[in-house]
Amino acid sequence: MLEEKNAMLRKFGKLSEKLLDALKNGSDDEVPMLLEQREFCISAINKLQEASGTLLTNSETTKLLNELVNKEEELEKRFSKTLQKMSRSIHAVRNEQYVARQYDEWNPVSSGYFYDQRK
């Protein structure tokens, strides 16, 4: 079981590297697929942990987890940058739409009350 867990951790690490490369290269189409595969690895590791009933760990597992922490920190930075870019893009599009609506033709509609002061 411990060897299976380490194998899944290695696979998770490789998927993290691919995800990092995809984010660096701007190939956004691969990101959802890689995230799903990472989720599969996490669920497989959790099932192994639950089946054993104890924490499966050794020096290799610790080493793999320490490597993963560094990759995850870099992924978090990349995702936050991507989120900021998306937020700026959405804001720019909304601003363009707002500006475009300012020049739309308005239908003349009277609003409010008209008081006739003549008697």
Your description of this structure?
The chain is mainly alpha-helical. Helices cover 76% and strands 0% of the residues. The protein contains three helices and no strands. The longest helix has 44 residues, at 59-102. The protein is elongated and about 95 Å long. The protein starts with a helix and ends in a 17-residue tail after the last helix.
Provide a quick synopsis of the model.
With 119 residues, the chain is mostly helical.
The value of Rg in angstroms is 27 Å
Beta-strand segment tally: 0
Strand composition percent: under 5%
Largest sheet: none
Structural class: mainly alpha
SSE arrangement, N to C? HHH
Q: Mean of the pLDDT scores?
A: 85
What's the helical proportion of residues? over 70%
Function: May act as an export chaperone for the filament capping protein FliD.
Protein name: Flagellar protein FliT
Keywords: Bacterial flagellum biogenesis, Chaperone, Coiled coil, Cytoplasm
Pfam family, one: FliT
Summary keywords:
single chain, 119 residues, mainly alpha, elongated
Indicate the topology.
Layout: H1 2-25, H2 31-52, H3 59-102
